[in-house]
Amino acid sequence: MGHADPLLEQDARQNFWMPFSPNKEFKQEPRMFVRGEGVWLYKPNGDQVLDASSGLFCVAAGHCRPEIAQAVFEQLNTLDYTMPFTRAHPKAFELAQRVATFTPEGLNRVFFTCSGSESVDSAMKMALAYHRVRGQGHRQLFVSRERAYHGVNMGGVALSGMVNNRRSFGVGLPGVHFMRHTALPENRFVQGQPETGADLAEDLARICTMVGGDNIAAVFVEPAAGSFGCLPPPKGYLDRLRALCDAHGILLVFDEVITGWGRMGTPFGAQKFGVTPDLLTMAKAITNGAQPMGAIAVRQDIYDTITEAGPERGVEFFHGYTYSAHPASCAAALAMMDIFEREDLIGRAAGMSPYFIEAIHSLRDLPCLVDIRSIGMMAALELSPAGQPPGARGHEAQKALYDANLNLKSTGDSLIIAPPFIAEKAHIDRIIDTLRAVLSTF
Ligand SMILES: Cc1ncc(COP(=O)(O)O)c(C=O)c1O
């Protein structure tokens, strides 16, 4: 019972309801890790597995960074918790200041959450609150995009452009209109941003015509869609969205839960693509994945507008989480900020990106692939379904890759590669060699 080794005892695997996982299959044939260090994860049998997806895009600085562990340990021994409503601790303020040195200019007010999903739902509320206090409470609609992933809370599900994430729970959710996704057939195997497809942003203009742009609160997009399988924005696409939002008084929200913190080779996708949103959500690598944390960086005047509209001594924004700006998460994030600065981690990602992208595209000749998409330190290999149900081959491939000691995430038939930024060329080469060896059998 209490001492049962979950690796050996099938019964001991039954209680844990695993998220986004095939529970029945996993409990028959578990694929576990028991340790991590640098770019490596370790199986129970001791085998070293290269973490080619940085966990879930979190572990930019590599696993088990002692600086982060030490900071969390010290924090938990100093102030383990304090309520974040009407009370605070100094590290929350310090972290907000540090985060604002990385965010695009003007987005310097920072609200903390515990995840990407919470950041998205919080940003939706901020948009609604902002419009309401300006006498535009009729702006109740949102615009999202096919193939978007904005987390799993109900707001994010409403924005979700992935059918399995909405089929069971999201079909009745009102208020969201969808633009088409940006994966055009003519852009298959293009490196980086495609030249064609900017006109897809005109979908927003059509939605504005259809429902009235003055009824739309915000447009949510991932600057480069990540979870679906790396969809870099066509050149000019985000600029056009920005212009249309400005023309209609709509807030533009970049969901940078994956693209943020260096994945694009810049602090945020906003800087990479030269387009500044009004709100920007983030999570994951803000703590290197070592503690749960998310955040929203907000244009200062949006914060000012909402807070100034509130009472002199009362709550201005009725929203927050028990664990908002949790002391241990703040300590982890501050240690991570130090790592970003000390190791120029984002510069390192930018420096490795061309090598990484070239290497990934060297797999183009594999007969099983129908597309390769890439940007920054993120790429996706899309497998042909080969007559099987969508996602079946992707699922089999990620299992075979684990068995060959390479860890990555699959979405549908796309395999997503997003190495830690500490990866050396030799690690990239090993990723490519393993992918070639395994995918040659598909
Ligand atoms: C763009 C985007 N938004 C939101 C989320 C949800 O984040 P979390 O799983 O931390 O709730 C994710 C997760 O991958 C994401 O990629």
What report would you give on this structure?
The protein is an alpha/beta fold. It has 2 domains: 31-61 and 344-439, Alpha-Beta Complex (Aspartate Aminotransferase, domain 1); 68-342, 3-Layer(aba) Sandwich (Aspartate Aminotransferase, domain 2), CATH 3.40.640. Helices cover 36% and strands 15% of the residues. It is built from 15 helices and 15 strands. It has helices at residues 23-28, 54-57, 66-78, 90-99, 116-133, 154-159, 163-166, 202-211, 237-248, 269-273, 300-309, 327-342, 345-361, 392-403, 425-439; strands at residues 35-37, 40-42, 48-51, 109-113, 141-145, 176-179, 216-221, 251-255, 279-282, 294-298, 369-375, 378-383, 406-407, 409-411, 414-417. It has a 7-stranded mixed β-sheet with strand order 4-10-9-8-7-5-6, with helices on both faces. A 4-stranded mixed β-sheet has the order 1-2-3-13. Strands 11-12-15-14 form a 4-stranded antiparallel β-sheet, covered by helices on one side. Helix 4 (90-99) runs parallel beside helix 12 (327-342). The site of pyridoxal-5'-phosphate (PLP) has 14 residues, from helix 5.
Give me the secondary-structure topology.
Blueprint: H1 23-28, E1 35-37, E2 40-42, E3 48-51, H2 54-57, H3 66-78, H4 90-99, E4 109-113, H5 116-133, E5 141-145, H6 154-159, H7 163-166, E6 176-179, H8 202-211, E7 216-221, H9 237-248, E8 251-255, H10 269-273, E9 279-282, E10 294-298, H11 300-309, H12 327-342, H13 345-361, E11 369-375, E12 378-383, H14 392-403, E13 406-407, E14 409-411, E15 414-417, H15 425-439
Parallel strand pairs: 3-13, 5-6, 5-7, 7-8, 8-9
Antiparallel strand pairs: 1-2, 2-3, 4-10, 9-10, 11-12, 12-15, 14-15
The structure holds pyridoxal-5'-phosphate (PLP).
The site of pyridoxal-5'-phosphate has 14 residues, from helix 5.
